[in-house]
């Protein structure tokens, strides 16, 4: 049994080695011939898993991505082949929450405001967005939510804090994006943030993006950058074709590391290995979690404590300055980023 594992998925090779031929690979350059004799594949966002890669892999039984995003996976194709798929949904939700919190603390310090003076709009209220809503409300923000799929399925509305996107954009002082990247369907999110939607934001508003780069139109962001504050972790064209002007004008620019915590990485590997163990019948790995990693310990935290402590865990200004100085180092920095500890 042969399992190919992206070299930047921690713990997986050594954990799976006693049970299979576990091979570390460069997920950015993986080719059809590399996977031809594999039984399973564990990837990250840089590997496109579709017919072009997998058509010759007749033994393939499982594909897992150690990420919350899955727009790089052709799920209908995998289903047509009977290949089990899993993502690590929710694995790093607290890490992203803490990136957002660090941005809010930075903005409050620089701009001189308190949460009760601001309306925060959360676009996409899933694993990450729901946490942002929970903590932001506890800190005193007025919070507006937009998530059409949830609203439709769960019957959510104004009484639950959900409003049309247009209303959210008009009324919010700060908007944070937490949607998946969807290019089709009833609620596509590709270039959801466009000239039309940005025009609804009031002058001086702030936009955070820690979802996917393509959710926001880069050219539109640049056209509105003189009247908005932009805080960006994800970029169209990353890692090799990031717009340098957008990188320069953004208040906060980080190299797609909002979800990079020790717990988030451990959770991602644990979720994927658990699913793989179930599919391939590796009983000793059911319920596995890496030794030496402290599990997340969620707790309430006051606005004052968060602002006082967050820099010790998530120092965004330093990371942003480094990225602005060395944009060509984006992928290396992302792959070697020192993982943060989650502290709430």
Task: List the quaternary state of the chains.
Answer: single chain
Number of helices: 15
Q: State the shape.
A: globular
Strand residue percentage:
5-15%
- The top-level CATH class of the largest domain is Alpha Beta
The fold-level CATH name of the largest domain is Rossmann fold
Query: How far do the termini sit from each other?
Result: 40 Å
Instruction: Report helical residue fraction.
Output: 25-40%
Report on this model:
The protein has helices spanning 12-16, 32-35, 51-54, 75-81, 93-111, 127-139, 148-154, 165-171, 195-198, 218-224, 244-249, 262-280, 303-309, 316-325, 330-336, and strands at residues 2-6, 21-25, 40-43, 62-65, 84-87, 119-123, 142-146, 174-177, 206-209, 229-232, 252-253. It starts with a strand and ends in an 8-residue tail after the last helix. The strands form 2 sheets. The chain has a 6-stranded parallel β-sheet with strand order 7-6-8-9-10-11, sandwiched between helices. The chain has a 5-stranded parallel β-sheet with strand order 2-1-3-4-5, sandwiched between helices. It is 37% helix and 13% strand. It has 344 residues and is an alpha/beta fold. The longest helix is centred in the first third of the chain and has 19 residues, at 93-111. 42% of the residues are buried. It has 2 domains: 2-87, Rossmann fold (3-Layer(aba) Sandwich); 93-258 and 309-336, Rossmann fold (3-Layer(aba) Sandwich). The protein contains 15 helices and 11 strands. It is globular, with a radius of gyration of 20 Å.
